[in-house]
Amino acid sequence: MGEPMVSGVTTVAAGWAVFAAVLLGLLALFAAALDGVATARAERSVAAGGGGRPGGGRRGLAVPLLEAARLLRQCRRVPVASDVLLWRVGVAGLPVLALLMVAVVPLGRWTLFDLPVGVVWFNAMDVAVWAAVWLAGWGPNSAHSLVGGYRFLAYGLAYELPLMFALVAPAVAAKSLRVGDIAAAQDGLWFAVWMPVAFLIYCMGALAFSVWGPFSPALGADVAGGVSAELSGADRLLLLAGRYALLAAGAAFAVPLFLGGGAGPLLPAWAWSLLKTVVLLAVLVLLRRRLPAVRPDRFMEVGWLILLPAALLQDLVIALVAIGRQ
Amino acid sequence: MVLDVGFWVVAVVAVASGAAVFIVDSMARATYALALSFIAVGVAVLMLRQDYVGVITILMMVMEMAVMAVYMVMFMGMNPALMPMSMVHDNRRAVGAAVATFVVLGAGALLIPWPTRRGAPPADPTRALGEALMGPHMLAMVVISPVMVATIVAGVVLAAHRTRYDRFGDDLRRRPARDPRRGGVGR
């Protein structure tokens, strides 16, 4: 690693961070709208079958905007003896961490922060989500919130190590921790194709650190909303938007890591990056209605007895191939 | 210039939040004040162009503090962790030890004849650091890591109050194991 490798990625001026934030916000809005439409459709089919209330209807698309408007006007409620500082840090931490994640993701040829250890950076940010979600659960001094926070940590202890070793595979294959180099190393063959186990575990990790789908019991209705139990007004909006932003960041990072980055015919590189991100994000959003919730106490064994060995075996195969190629 | 100012800012944040660990009255605040201190140290290391070491410091320390939050409720009997509590004990001796340590380290830093720089910093400081630390001792490092893992596993096994006889019966033949909670993979 004496001289910098040619990765074809140029660092743009820091002012473009505003553009990145807007783009991340739009992706999060897309995810929320898609989930709104899917929810409205599911409600309609239930209403049609069971004679429930008709409606939901076409408003699904506008649900996130209406909800945001409602929450922005809502009065903020603070429980007695809550630790407001830690609570606010945790809640506001989610969208901030999502933005820090996308800082190292190249959009086609441009990147905000061309860190030589971009993959480790992303990993550090997704670990910081542990802290943010737990703090958001701890802050309001409420039993239900705290249970939600600990549920998330229980998932974390199970999903994080498999996720880390899944991130190792592309880095080993590309012989670099720089995100741009990893995207450039996949000409012709996407890493998702020849390291499918790592890709699937990564997608599971993205669902998990976004508290989404199978990992949503941290916000579960059975504990009165868990981490979100006491949240109201702008705080609630930040947490919900932060989840979608994390999901979007997870999808965006998968593109240079597993899906060939900006490579593709006809369209320019930035368009391919964006297109792949949108498609993967849509899949992750819609998976919520397809997968059952996993129990935090049972998932520990799944993580350590199945996912971790699977990720390690994947790394071994990739390492052997990488050595054989030299 | 900007880098110098930034370095001093994170240095002050690291020390101040380290001190806050002993001033605040809640386990959660103490834990995350320590996390903030470590993050500031990680950023300082990042500014020294030790990219990998800096980012990995942030990663490991934030994770460690989150795990500490698990332990703090798991192992603290009647859960004083959830109540306001003092973060110091044995005050007088602790202050004495702290002052003595500060004087010794401060005197050392001021009195030692610092060497002048020889040569230029390498192109990749992380690699140079790794080779200086590990290069001739790779075998020792390779041996030490499984020993450390074995120590951790042995420590957990010794600390757990349920043994394999509780799980598998006196002749170790009971299948599936009798656990207070069923596992997630159908055992």
Automatic annotation (TrEMBL), chain A:
Q: Does the keyword Glycoprotein apply?
A: no
Q: Provide the alphabetized UniProt keywords.
A: Membrane, NAD, Transmembrane, Transmembrane helix
Known Pfam families for this protein?
NADHdh (PF00146)
Q: Does the keyword Kinase apply?
A: no
- The record lists the membrane-crossing segments as 12-34, 85-107, 119-140, 152-173, 193-212, 244-263, 269-287, 299-323
Which N-terminal stretch is annotated as signal sequence? Answer: none
Task: Output the superkingdom of the source species.
Answer: Bacteria
Query: Its membrane topology, per UniProt?
Result: Multi-pass membrane protein
Enumerate the InterPro entries for this protein.
NADH_UbQ_OxRdtase_su1/FPO (IPR001694)
Where is the protein situated, by its record's location annotation? Cell membrane; Membrane
**Any single biological process term in GO:** aerobic respiration
Q: Which GO terms describe its cellular component?
A: plasma membrane
Q: Which GO terms describe its molecular function?
A: NADH dehydrogenase activity
Q: Cross-referenced PANTHER family, in alphabetical order?
A: NADH DEHYDROGENASE SUBUNIT 1, NADH-UBIQUINONE OXIDOREDUCTASE CHAIN 1
Q: Report the family membership.
A: Belongs to the complex I subunit 1 family.
The protein's name in its UniProt record: NADH-quinone oxidoreductase subunit H
Q: Which organism is it from?
A: Knoellia koreensis
From TrEMBL, chain B:
Family assignment? Belongs to the complex I subunit 6 family.
- Report the EC code(s) recorded for this entry: 7.1.1.-
Subcellular localization = Cell membrane
Molecular function per GO: NADH dehydrogenase (ubiquinone) activity; quinone binding
* Main localization category: membrane
Stated name of the protein: NADH-quinone oxidoreductase subunit J
Name the chemical reaction catalysed here: a quinone + NADH + 5 H(+)(in) = a quinol + NAD(+) + 4 H(+)(out)
Pfam families hit by this protein: Oxidored_q3
Q: Which residues cross the membrane?
A: 6-24, 31-48, 54-73, 94-114, 134-160
Briefly state the protein's biological role: NDH-1 shuttles electrons from NADH, via FMN and iron-sulfur (Fe-S) centers, to quinones in the respiratory chain. Couples the redox reaction to proton translocation (for every two electrons transferred, four hydrogen ions are translocated across the cytoplasmic membrane), and thus conserves the redox energy in a proton gradient.
| Its membrane topology | Multi-pass membrane protein
Q: Which GO terms describe its cellular component?
A: plasma membrane
Keyword annotations for this protein, in alphabetical order, are: Cell membrane, Membrane, NAD, Quinone, Transmembrane, Transmembrane helix
